[in-house]
Amino acid sequence: MQELAERMIKKALQAVDPYHLIRRQLRYEDSRLHIQDRLTLRLEDYKHIYLLGIGKGVAPMAAAMEELLGKRLDKSRVIVKYGHGQSLNKSEVFEAGHPIPDANTLQASQKLLELAEEAGADDLVFVLITGGGSALFELLPRDMNLDDLAGINNMLLASGASIDEINTVRKHLSLVKGGRLAQKIAPARCVSLILSDVIGDPLESIASGPTAPDPTTFEQARHILDKYRLWDKLSPKIQHIIEGKNRDVKESPDADQPVFKNVNNIIIGNNRLALKILEKEAGEAGLNTLVLTDRAEGEARELGVFLAGVLRSAKEDALPVAAPGCLILGGEPTVSIKGTGKGGRNQELVLAALLALKNYNRPFYLCSVGSDGTDGPTDAAGAWINEKTWAKAVQNKLNALEYLENNDSYSFFKVLNQLIITGPTRTNVMDLIFFLV
């Protein structure tokens, strides 16, 4: 089972590789660029062509765009996470902090904004967007500094707030998120090519929607901060911004703004695409398959317990899939951090599943993997268990419940040598979760 699972993960990650997504979905023929079946651009209609990129996976996307556009590409600037850069022919590559922005983030973002503002009415600007863009592309109002931003980011990440909720708050503390990049690019034509890392692919949430209309408001940002009891922990100057009283940060542009008539936002890859490859590989191996959802969210440990129950049902009652079978889901659960340990949502999900399956000795394999290769502040993408894991933990005198309560799933699985380590994948389509029975 483990060999099949490793092959499935490898193939799924290859399917959402940013370079190959661009090469498969864009075609350049006779001075025309065809994007999927949705858009055809006559490049000779544009005086200059510029390329901007934000996110952990945009360097390989930029490499593919350089190959496609050749001499027609005039200038390009992209921002990636430290260690995710690569040497490109025409693109300036800036590396910056993730998941917390740093000084290099602000400097690189200013450089991108300057190029965006160079574009005129006769120009075309491509914007490449992947997961990580929210942290990597940022400019702040005068009353905020990086320490302020780091503080509120840390609070949001630790609160259990969803990525949509986190992005709603971020957009209302920013000069570039929530459609504001599209405003800077105008009056040039803007085409954004997007690798989605958000459940349901809402354009306004992916990388905080820099070129998408934003339906969220200051009022909604305030509601989220109240919901997670964070409002009273904010400094007065941050509260002032969220209340809409800072003249630097105006309400984000909504769909009624004319700027968006000249903008195309196109999804080129998402979680669903990766799940289809998992299903294909399992099916070709002779397994019954079922893709349950690509919208899994909520507390990671609760999802782990749920999956353990479904696994038993599949194994013993052939529901909702019969053995030999594979049940697949994707999404992005969250973790409310209460302990002092080290881990991530995928590792925590698997540890919770293990506790629910303790002493279950019928053959199975269950895993959860972050598609970007990074699960929480660790070098692991996720973890796996099988019917031998519980006995192995007991033999090593590991108390699984104590590790779970301390949010220390990484340490637990490291002892057992059951971490999944892929290294940086340079893609991000949320998490891949499946079991084999």
From TrEMBL:
The UniProt record lists the MOFRL domain at: 326-431
Instruction: Could you list this entry's UniProt keywords, alphabetically sorted.
Output: ATP-binding, Kinase, Nucleotide-binding, Transferase
In which organism is this protein found? Caldithrix abyssi
Can you say what this protein is called?
Glycerate kinase
Which InterPro entries does the UniProt record give? GK-like_C_sf (IPR037035), GK_N_sf (IPR038614), MOFRL (IPR007835), MOFRL_assoc_dom (IPR025286), MOFRL_protein (IPR039760)
- Which molecular-function annotations from GO does this UniProt entry contain? ATP binding; glycerate kinase activity
**Which Pfam families does the entry mention?**
DUF4147 (PF13660), MOFRL (PF05161)
Record domain MOFRL-associated: where: 5-242
Gene Ontology cellular-component terms listed: cytoplasm
